[in-house]
Every structure is written in C-alpha cells, then in structure tokens.
Design brief:
With 159 residues, the protein is of the alpha+beta class. It has one helix spanning 133-157, and strands spanning 17-18, 27-35, 46-49, 55-63, 69-77, 85-86, 92-95, 99-105, 109-114, 118-119, 123-126, 129-132. A hairpin with a 5-residue loop joins strand 4 and strand 5 (69-77). The N and C termini lie far apart (58 Å).
C-alpha cells in the first residue's frame, strides 16, 4: 500500500470550521521583538504599527536590555491573513501609553493561533451550543441514560 503524497489530497475548500463549547475558543497572539525603545510597553495598552496600521493589545513584556525586549500581543488585527505576517522589520510602533514611535520592530512577526477548530460536519449542535463528539458524549451521556430509563418505565406502565 502506497501512502499518498501531499499534492494528491484534495483541499477542503468550502468547509466551515468552528470551535467546541468545552474545548474553548481559538486565540491569536503575536510575539514581537523590539529595539530602540524609548519607553517600556505596558500590559493592556494598544500597540499600532505606523506603516502597516496592524494593532494588538500587550499581554506581556520582557525587557532583554535597556532598549530591547519582547512583547506578546493578543487580539491582533490588520495583519495579512494569508501569510499571517504582522508588522514589517524596523517598523515604528506607537502605543496608547508608550507614545508615538516609541520603538522599532526587530525582525518579522508571525501570528500564532492556538485552540482547536473542527469542521462543522464533526460538531454536534445541542441546546444552542456546538460540541466535539468527545465532549458531547462526556457531557450528555448521563442525560441519555436517564432519558432511556424514563422511556422504558413509561412503556412498561401501559401493560
């Protein structure tokens, strides 16, 4: 038996994806290395690229030197969805607290995605929420057993 090559699989174009209510949402974040900083970014402030106008909210900051550091941005917007690239190398950054052009991006930044996405056909919608099959069985198995007992008792009752 021969294993198919990558090009032999058809794309899943048109399939819709969603998250399981219990697995949790998909989250996006960006790790930004910066240098030439005149101020230290503050957790919660909004950072905007002067050239690209990409934005994100600072969720953590680590200064690696007097004017250099790494920050993690949550809720990124404005980035190229196809390449998942945010900001340009040496792009000036402006912060709502740190001020205009307080720092420069040191290298490119890629948007990271965490969480589980499922094709809609693999999700079970129940009581207005979507569940992956594992969590659906885990959460509602006791309900099924109790409902089956009630149905059995009602069927025997008429005889």
């Amino acid at each position: 038996m021969r294993i198919k090559g990558r090009s032999e699989f058809s794309e899943l174009s048109g399939d819709r994806y969603d998250t399981c209510f219990i697995c949790g949402p998909v989250e996006y974040h960006v790790v930004v290395h910066f240098d030439g900083s005149s101020a230290t970014p503050v957790v919660g402030e909004i950072i905007t690229g002067v050239t690209t106008l990409d934005t994100g909210v600072v969720s953590s900051v680590t200064m690696t030197g007097a004017t250099t550091g790494v920050m993690i941005l949550s809720s990124p917007t404005g980035y190229d969805a196809e390449s998942s690239v945010m900001f340009q190398d040496n792009e000036a950054l402006t912060g709502t607290t740190s001020g205009a052009s307080f720092s420069l991006v040191d290298g490119g930044c890629g948007v990271c995605k965490s969480g589980r996405m499922f094709p809609d056909k693999m999700l079970i919608e129940y009581q207005g929420r979507k569940y992956c099959s594992e969590h659906f069985v885990f959460r509602f198995q006791a309900d099924w057993i109790n409902e089956a007992k009630i149905d059995a008792n009602e069927n025997l009752r008429g005889k």
